[in-house]
C-alpha cells in the first residue's frame, strides 16, 4: 500500500542563459543551461506558498546534473588548450628577450617549443618579428604571427622587453596554474629551461625570467631552484 505525499516542496525552473562548460560529472566539455527557480510549498501536489528563490544553477545538457555558477571557473578543454599554448609562447619570447637570439641552437629550440605547444606554423622569422616589436615598445604581445623577421632583441638583455614580458608572463601563467597538476607546472618551467640551456649555462637574465615563471606557476622557490639545477645536469 502506497502512502500519499500530502505536503512537499516543488521547484519551478526558468532558463536565463546557456553556454559551454567543463562538466565535473561528465569529465568533459558540455552545453549547459543557466537556470533560476522558485520554491513553492505543495499540498496534494498543488503549489501554494512561496518558499523563496532557488539557484542559480548550471544544468548539464548531457547528465542533467546541477552545479553552482563557480563551475564556470574551470576552463573548457578548448580554452585550457589555448591558455597552455599561449603560456608557452609568452614564456619562449621572454627567454629569447633575456638570453638573446644570436645562437642557432636557442632559436631552433624556441621554434620547436612553440610549434609543439600548438602554433604549428610558427617560424623563426615570426618570433623575431614579435621580439622586435617588443623592443620598439609598439605594444603588448598578441600571440599572432605577422610579417618577416627583424633582428630586435637579438643582442639585448631583458631591459628593452622586460617589463611588458614580465606582465605577460604573470597574466598568462597565473590563471593557468590552478588547473595544472604539479607535474604539469614543473614541465612548463622545464620547457623554458631547455630554451635557456640550448647555448650553455643560464645567464642572470634567464634565471630571473625562469624564477618569475616558477613564481607565476605557484612553485616554491626551492622547487624552482631544484628543477633548474636538474635541467642543467645531463641525464
From TrEMBL:
Annotated CDD domains: terB_like
InterPro entries linked: DjlA_N, TerB-like
Co-chaperone DjlA N-terminal domain boundaries: 92-227
SUPFAM superfamilies, sorted: TerB-like
Top-level lineage group: Bacteria
Name assigned to this protein: TerB family tellurite resistance protein
Originating organism: Streptomyces sioyaensis
Taxonomic path: Bacteria, Bacillati, Actinomycetota, Actinomycetes, Kitasatosporales
Amino acid at each position: 500500500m502506497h502512502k500519499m505525499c500530502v505536503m512537499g516542496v516543488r521547484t519551478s525552473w526558468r532558463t536565463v542563459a546557456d553556454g559551454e562548460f567543463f562538466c565535473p560529472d561528465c569529465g568533459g566539455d558540455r552545453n549547459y543551461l543557466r537556470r533560476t527557480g522558485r520554491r513553492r510549498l505543495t499540498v496534494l501536489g498543488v503549489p501554494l506558498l512561496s518558499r523563496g528563490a532557488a539557484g542559480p544553477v548550471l544544468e548539464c545538457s548531457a547528465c542533467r546534473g546541477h552545479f553552482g555558477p563557480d563551475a564556470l571557473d574551470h576552463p573548457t578543454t578548448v580554452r585550457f588548450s589555448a591558455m597552455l599554448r599561449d603560456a608557452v609562447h609568452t614564456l619562449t619570447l621572454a627567454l629569447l628577450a633575456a638570453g638573446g637570439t644570436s645562437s642557432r641552437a636557442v632559436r631552433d629550440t624556441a621554434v620547436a617549443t612553440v610549434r609543439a605547444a600548438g602554433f604549428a606554423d610558427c617560424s623563426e622569422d615570426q618570433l623575431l618579428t614579435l621580439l622586435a616589436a617588443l623592443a620598439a615598445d609598439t605594444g603588448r604581445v598578441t600571440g599572432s604571427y605577422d610579417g618577416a623577421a627583424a633582428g630586435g632583441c637579438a643582442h639585448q638583455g631583458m631591459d628593452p622587453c622586460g617589463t611588458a614580458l614580465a606582465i605577460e608572463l604573470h597574466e598568462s601563467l597565473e590563471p593557468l596554474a590552478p588547473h595544472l597538476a604539479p607535474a604539469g607546472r614543473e614541465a612548463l618551467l622545464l620547457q623554458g629551461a631547455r630554451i635557456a640551456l640550448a647555448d650553455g649555462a643560464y645567464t642572470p637574465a634567464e634565471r630571473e625570467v625562469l624564477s618569475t615563471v616558477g613564481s607565476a606557476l605557484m612553485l616554491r622557490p626551492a622547487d624552482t631552484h631544484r628543477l633548474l639545477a636538474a635541467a642543467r645536469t645531463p641525464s
